[in-house]
């Protein structure tokens, strides 16, 4: 493709309503993909989404919309989505600090500039397409008020009228059923013809039309009319079930209020929340939901974050604290400065993540997709053989075998099979999102279900990531104030937890940081900067020893600190030791319980940390898990690559130095307080910063995969039974269509059970 051709291409996004079974995606995708200038077509069933890349010099957008409407669906342009997959409160945006890792404490670099998240996209088409489709205006109505429900009622009236006519006038009763069948099947035949014109002969509409018309030719008019009615009933049931599966996703959007109180000078006025822009100030009254991600300017109140994180206890927030859209202000009025636009707030990003789930499809789903592509033509071929072989080869009656062949066509529709995976994935995603467990799609869920080893970064993951200075030990003539002034100067501008601990200690001691410049990371070893006109270092004791910044006595003191589970850093100038600063970062309260749960689930836990072995051993010993210490980012990457050859590995991290390991692992999980880079690189995230959410994520993934296996068994089992009974004449047309629709409904309802699953409850 030339650059000029690429420049002409536009990324387009629509909402398509009416997709009520897994096979609907293929109908739309195949029809649209045939148009010139169209590429990268993606159709999401549960998210009702059509996305593609379009060269508008070859095909206009309205042509795409006309094509979709011709297939019986409604389509409308989609509002812009979030710019990133998900970035959570507490994550840093746009920092360009070069401060990198102290070897002793995972001191990560801080290049947190925005990074475009690459969406993982796969085709999402499936088997045999098409049904009677929902009108968007029908949402929220009772089934009998919808267009689909009215069709069922009309078809039932036709069938009832035909029975009455047959009872009153048997000689014309047959023709009454013929009329009922033809009137009921007419809209179905119209859609079948539309699909046929677009090169799609194997649709459920075409099978229904053939079966109904064929039944009329073999004098089974009454049964043909009944099949048309049951088909319409099945459509209603499938639409209701699919709607319930989507409700969890729709509920997320309702977390953000529709309006906001915009503060302009001394006045306040109500405006649409979607119109808020960065930098504006909003008033959030007690009991109101916060309308946008922002920072509190004025007021202190309890903020209930449970609608998004599932954390039930309100947290006290005051000036300078970050809050996010959808949280509830419980106590006092707050003035909040908007920091993210409506399309990029926390809820929008979570919704985007859930929507992306259908694109990162599970291997199981991709297999079923391939299977369904040859399955439907094969069923048609078998049905044709059932119709012609017995009469021609064995002299059997045509009527009997035509009837059985038509029944075989109806039972052969793979709708239940192809909806089995996306329905379960959508339900699991919705359940996880309500509890702050976010996963980027079916492929992640399937990988998480197979995890055998979980590797943890230490700082900010197993620990709070908020260490406090416990000891300040100056050397020689250096005073404690001088030591803190130099260390604070080196760390000025860094947002790393250990840097913040040093800066906070200096502030509490009333010590001003010396002016600094040219801060530079010593990856995995520390930070160097020009402080007070001379070069100064804050580094690991080992690096300090190698560069004349620590003597034997100082090293012994550092060792004592490390044996107590503290992290020690050396502060020195060229060949001039200034002192040691020791800090401790306590493990999270639930870390030990999380490790216990993982062990009970048969999962091995390992700490991967840049800390020295003594400090790592102190933390690992208290939690009861294995550890690997003195690890640079490349060491973590190599370790995960090595154990990944033996089984599925999950990596938990929160810093930029964890990003390579998160990407290498089978499943990378970012803690909610982590950096943008970690969150965008990861396959999943936990919002609540609770370590017990790691086993909960694995538990939810295993439940989802078990649900998928149940669905596939239901779908294939019913197909197998009724295919056999249809061939042997034990079941007829109306039983065949009822079994097909019933299987689809059963599979969807089984998937909906995941909406009530509690992944925090141990089995």
Automatic annotation (TrEMBL):
The keyword NAD belongs to this UniProt entry's keyword annotation: no
Ranges where the record places region Disordered: 88-139, 294-315
Domain HMA intervals: 10-76
EC annotation from Swiss-Prot or TrEMBL: 7.2.2.12
InterPro entries: ATPase_P-typ_cyto_dom_N (IPR023299), ATPase_P-typ_P_site (IPR018303), ATPase_P-typ_TM_dom_sf (IPR023298), ATPase_P-typ_transduc_dom_A_sf (IPR008250), ATPase_P-type_domA (IPR059000), Cation_Transport_ATPase_IB (IPR051014), HAD-like_sf (IPR036412), HAD_sf (IPR023214)
Coiled-coil region: none
Transcription regulation keyword on record: no
Class of the enzyme per the UniProt entry, highest EC level: translocase
Topology versus the membrane: Multi-pass membrane protein
Main localization, broad class: membrane
GO MF, any single term: metal ion binding
CDD domains linked: HMA, P-type_ATPase_Pb_Zn_Cd2-like
Sequence intervals crossing the membrane: 151-169, 175-193, 374-394, 406-429, 708-728
GO cellular component terms listed in the entry, alphabetical order: plasma membrane
Catalysed conversion reaction: Zn(2+)(in) + ATP + H2O = Zn(2+)(out) + ADP + phosphate + H(+)
Domain of life: Bacteria
Keywords associated with the record: ATP-binding, Cell membrane, Membrane, Metal-binding, Nucleotide-binding, Plasmid, Translocase, Transmembrane, Transmembrane helix
PROSITE patterns assigned to the protein according to its UniProt record, in alphabetical order: ATPASE_E1_E2 (PS00154), COF_2 (PS01229), HMA_2 (PS50846)
PANTHER family: CADMIUM/ZINC-TRANSPORTING ATPASE HMA2-RELATED, CADMIUM_ZINC-TRANSPORTING ATPASE HMA4-RELATED
Family of the protein in this entry: Belongs to the cation transport ATPase (P-type) (TC 3.A.3) family. Type IB subfamily.
Descriptive protein name: P-type Zn(2+) transporter
